[in-house]
Write the structure tokens for this entry.
Amino acid sequence: MQLFLPSMENNICLQSPLKYQLLKWVGNKQRYANEIISLFPSDFNVYFEPFLGSGAVLAALAPMNGLGTDNFPPLIEIWKTLKNRPEELKEWYKNRWDILNNGDKIGNYEEIKKSYNNNPNGADLLFLSRSCYGGVVRFRKSDGYMSTPCGIHEPISPASFSKRVDEWYERTKNANFELLDYKEAMELSKTKDLVYCDPPYIHSQGILYGAQEFNIEELFHEIEKCKSKGVYVVLSIDGIKKSGKHICELPETKDLFKREILINCGRSMLKRFQMEGKSLEQEEVKDRLLLTF
């Protein structure tokens, strides 16, 4: 399988700042993606994002040569459709937006959610991510059941979503998307490639897909393997919560990382969901950004 374009010395396609989300996703880095990118090396080959999620950093970077991966099939179905059939992605959204706005909003939302839970798929997940309460797509641990209720907001119009698809298509057109475990994806990296990891956060994302089984020490081992072959690695992970009152502890990393930088993330999206939408003054959080170079 051919995954990449030929390597090049500088893998950044300069773009104006990314303004609008395609997917709503907990942990979305869109608001500070440019701050993260500013810390990337200026010279690298292939860009890897093995915990793709919302794809905000990849789209903001707009690499000339990239690979976005995730182990969640409905999510990768969305990204592959964006790359190969963007007009179909627009139709997915419009069809479900029409259903939601045809009479009983909550009942219609529940029908879309039921369709997803009966057969997990990218088309339903795409719309649910934009219409569920707080934009927090929550999955039941026992069976993966998507449980988030309907949001109080009105989802953006199909016309607005269509414009976002066009922008995101242009920004991600030089990337490929594959269904891979993060270990498989990181194994593909080579000297002077760049890997940006944004895994489930060990202190806050236990209700999200796959978070319960995620092991940070195993990720550190994979990062060490990448570093040993000359790959640059950047990791976003838990930092400081409760407006600086709680520092999240991480396992010992020894000399794995050369730098640690705190990124101010504002108020906690997940905590607002858990507290019924209240914007909490004492829930400002900062992420750690750990760099191997």
Q: What stands out?
A: Residues 133 and 149 are 6 Å apart (CA to CA). Confidence is low (pLDDT under 50) at residues 1-9, 269-275.
